[in-house]
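Quick log. Single chain, no ligands specified.
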Amino acid sequence: MGYLYEAMDRAKKHLKKRNPKAYRKWWVIIDKRWEMTLHHNLHAAGYFFNPRFQYKDNVHNDGEVMRGTMNVITRLAKTMNERLDAIAEVERYRMKLGIYR
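-> predicted structure:
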């Protein structure tokens, strides 16, 4: 699932590079389709938790990715303690601590 985020980013950058004057109209179409049919919290979480993307230099952990990831955690973790534990684990993952080294 996380590969979809990376593919969309690459496609948009490619369009901008190939046609700097007209890329915006294509971005509008892509973004509209993305929001209507392709964007889901699980895609965001899949991208976030994929080590290939998480630990590269130009990671795309913007608000959209983090919101989607937190929405998945909130849905799966039923109690506040479970949510807090999951969020703490996410931070350990991001920082490459413990088992994530």
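Residues 3-100 form one domain.
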